[in-house]
Input
Amino acid sequence: QKEVEQDPGPLSVPEGAIVSLNCTYSNSAFQYFMWYRQYSRKGPELLMYTYSSGNKEDGRFTAQVDKSSKYISLFIRDSQPSDSATYLCAMSAGTGNQFYFGTGTSLTVIP
Amino acid sequence: DADVTQTPRNRITKTGKRIMLECSQTKGHDRMYWYRQDPGLGLRLIYYSFDVKDINKGEISDGYSVSRQAQAKFSLSLESAIPNQTALYFCATSALGTSGTRSTDTQYFGPGTRLTVL
Output
């Protein structure tokens, strides 16, 4: 079983839709949860960072962590064509520990 | 200027050739990483280094070696390239930081090197 599971999509939505991206994990030691956005032919860039359980909001983006279910989500409100990218979840158990990445979900927002 | 740079950005080589990929960073971070990215497999860790004297194997280190020449430089070598090493290679850096009373360890990626081994 992989440490982190992520549906690869592809996901295609109309502009303005709410997008929900999800990852599940198996290691209960994970404490730090991140979402990266990767545009085509570019390196991943950090989008959201969350420690432990709870919600974090940044503009149109909301990250949720449910440690009891080992499930994390990224919500994008009022999606824009510029949000079209691959979104990777990542997590680690803490300082000095290895990062584990999901395989990424490809999102296309259609104008 | 980019905080994490990688050279070359694209490379086509033949089986058996020695290849070196280079990474430099101006972020002042101690920790550096090499990943490869393959469709359907995501990012996989090859090697990582927490400081100049520290080198650690990652998930898929076979066939690769690294050199940490300075805090800001971390090179990845393929001693004898093979076709299944065709992939997108990323360098990343991180620094121990704090958020309130908790430590953080987020990673920052370079633009990647697309390597093709024929």
About this structure: Residues 2 and 62 of chain B are 30 Å apart (CA to CA). Chain B touches chain A through 25 residues (CB under 8 Å).
